[in-house]
């Protein structure tokens, strides 16, 4: 039961990565990095966080779902895996009684691709099953922040709004506390038991949903294992007799051997994302702050490994093993990968299944595998946990009780676990209309592909799981890869803490991504990076460190 996954350019842009991973999370439980807003109360500061006992009393009671036992239980922070066939004719129901009353509900959400028509069969069927009457205000996911900012600045806010973590910057982060309601009276403690699928969402994910001292978000949970996979063409590796590299030097040596500009084959694309894992650098998608073994609170760019991982990627570019289009930072690296023009690329977890299905008919020999992370010197890697949630649906302040209850009913339906009638409806639509069943496996038709590209999956989600009935071995490989990497994952000091930094520091680190892009391509010098780090410290980085120290002293550590 795997929903469609949007296709977003796989060039190394953190914004596009966050967006693609958010959508993919519904399908394959990819991690979602975040930087979000939280404060003391509606009338107090909107900076800071709420954690510890103060957060615990705001959380819904956790009641795990027992409907479908996974074939591969979660381990080391992985998603759960389902690889056996499900009897589609005997699916259990996680919502035996409709909780929705059919009252009108307007929902704004990002959507990548062409949105379904408002009166399509899929929307009608979901409304009928869930007892809802939703008017979807789908917005282009690539420009969602602009629309979100404008809507939150206005006096006309839809009943429910999907809020991604990567849009929570500047005024939007403050508006979340000001414009969305406290869901505690409906969900805190045992109140959530009215909505069993919401009760089955892990507590860490709910903790990430506290904004401004109140429970305001309904989360999409995420696995804590890495969201980025260094993919390689296993079919080509096997044919050529290549050995999968297990150190930074081995990778560079292999890359030189595998590259043949004459044959139009290059080893890889821009490897910055994977290099962070190879060199033990905290990913940019986390908050970036951590207290090390030496007891010092430092930011990711202050570590020597930060420069080392960029210098290594620069060596790849200098050696000519990176595809020219990657060097020019144009096009889609994943398409170059499937075309055999590059043999390794960074991608989110969804690419494993997405590229397999894409190539199944036209290139049956195609095999995509995930390379295990290694430490640069060939030892065990140091990896950092992804945050347990990074996208939420929220209900506007002032909404009527009936609107609130219908919004929660929709979210409860969307959070149905794998192996249920509700999950099938959300992920596949109506049998005969959107999909057919062949050998016990649901297969979407053209209408299903178009209409079941929707925002229902962003209202809420069950605990992270991975399942592909048409390619169960891909699901196995994904979960086993997560479990292997998870053995080396560490939680940072700010893990699970929903933090908004003071607005005066909002753009403090914004120049580093472009600087990294330029440096690895040889367009900037090492001294430029070092100067930027020095400027970061003097322009507010050291003061922000003091702010974090006070925050952590007050709230404790996330690990």
TrEMBL record:
Task: Report the InterPro entries cross-referenced here.
Answer: Bact_solute-bd_prot1 (IPR050490), SBP (IPR006059), TAT_signal (IPR006311)
- Keyword Protein transport among record annotations: no
Q: Which UniProt keywords apply?
A: Signal, Transport
* Broad class of the protein's primary localization: other
The yes or no answer to whether the keyword Signal is present is yes
Q: Which Pfam families match?
A: SBP_bac_8
Q: Where in the cell is it found?
A: Cell envelope
Against PROSITE patterns, the record matches this protein to: TAT
Per the record, the similarity remark reads:
Belongs to the bacterial solute-binding protein 1 family.
Protein name (database record): Extracellular solute-binding protein
- Organism field: Streptomyces bullii
> What are the leading ranks of the lineage?
Bacteria, Bacillati, Actinomycetota, Actinomycetes, Kitasatosporales
């Amino acid at each position: 039961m795997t929903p469609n996954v949007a296709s977003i350019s796989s060039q190394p842009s953190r914004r596009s990565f966050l967006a693609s991973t958010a959508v993919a999370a519904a399908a394959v439980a990819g991690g979602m990095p975040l930087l979000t807003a939280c404060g003391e109360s509606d009338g107090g500061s909107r900076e800071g966080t709420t954690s510890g006992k103060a957060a615990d009393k705001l959380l819904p009671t956790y009641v795990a779902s027992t409907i479908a036992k996974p074939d591969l239980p979660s381990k080391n922070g992985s998603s759960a895996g389902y690889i056996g066939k499900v009897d589609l004719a005997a699916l259990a129901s996680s919502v035996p009684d409709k909780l929705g009353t059919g009252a009108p509900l307007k929902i704004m959400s990002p959507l990548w691709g062409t949105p379904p028509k408002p009166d399509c069969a899929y929307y009608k069927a979901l409304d009928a099953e869930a007892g809802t009457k939703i008017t979807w205000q789908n917005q282009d996911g690539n420009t969602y922040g602009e629309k979100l900012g404008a809507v939150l600045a206005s006096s006309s806010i839809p009943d429910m709004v999907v809020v991604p973590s990567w849009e929570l910057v500047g005024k939007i982060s403050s508006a979340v506390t000001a414009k969305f309601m406290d869901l505690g009276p409906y969900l805190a403690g045992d109140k959530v038991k009215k909505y069993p699928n919401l009760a089955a969402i892990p507590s860490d994910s709910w903790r990430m949903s506290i904004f401004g001292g109140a429970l305001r978000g309904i989360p999409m949970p995420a696995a804590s294992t890495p969201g980025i996979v260094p993919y390689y063409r296993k079919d080509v590796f096997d044919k050529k007799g290549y050995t999968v590299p297990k150190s930074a030097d081995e990778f560079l040596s292999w890359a030189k051997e595998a590259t043949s500009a004459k044959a139009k084959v290059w080893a890889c694309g821009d490897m910055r994302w994977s290099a962070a894992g190879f060199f033990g650098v905290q990913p940019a998608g986390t908050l970036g702050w951590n207290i090390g073994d030496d007891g010092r609170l430092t930011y990711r760019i202050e570590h020597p490994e930060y420069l080392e991982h960029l210098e290594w990627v620069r060596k790849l570019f200098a050696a000519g093993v990176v595809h020219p289009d990657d060097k020019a930072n144009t096009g889609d690296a994943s398409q170059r990968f499937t075309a055999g023009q590059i043999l390794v690329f960074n991608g989110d977890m969804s690419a494993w299944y997405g590229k397999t299905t894409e190539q199944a008919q036209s290139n049956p020999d195609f095999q995509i595998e995930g390379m295990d992370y290694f430490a640069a010197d060939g030892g065990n890697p140091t990896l950092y946990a992804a945050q347990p949630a990074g996208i939420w649906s929220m209900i506007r302040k002032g909404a009527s009780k009936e609107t609130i209850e219908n919004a929660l009913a929709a979210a409860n339906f969307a959070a149905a676990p794998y192996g249920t009638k509700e999950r099938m409806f959300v992920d596949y639509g109506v049998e005969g209309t959107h999909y057919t069943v062949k050998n016990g496996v649901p297969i979407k038709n053209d209408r299903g592909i178009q209409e079941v590209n929707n925002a229902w999956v962003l209202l809420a989600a069950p605990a992270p799981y991975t399942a592909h009935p048409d390619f169960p071995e891909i699901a196995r490989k994904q979960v086993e890869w997560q479990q292997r990497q998870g053995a080396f994952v560490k939680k940072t000091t700010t893990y699970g803490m929903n933090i908004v930094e003071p607005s005066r520091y909002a753009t403090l680190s914004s120049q580093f991504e472009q600087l990294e892009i330029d440096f690895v391509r040889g367009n900037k010098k090492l001294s430029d990076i070092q100067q930027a780090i020095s400027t970061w410290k003097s322009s507010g980085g050291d003061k922000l460190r003091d702010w974090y120290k006070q925050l952590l002293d007050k709230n404790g550590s996330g690990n």
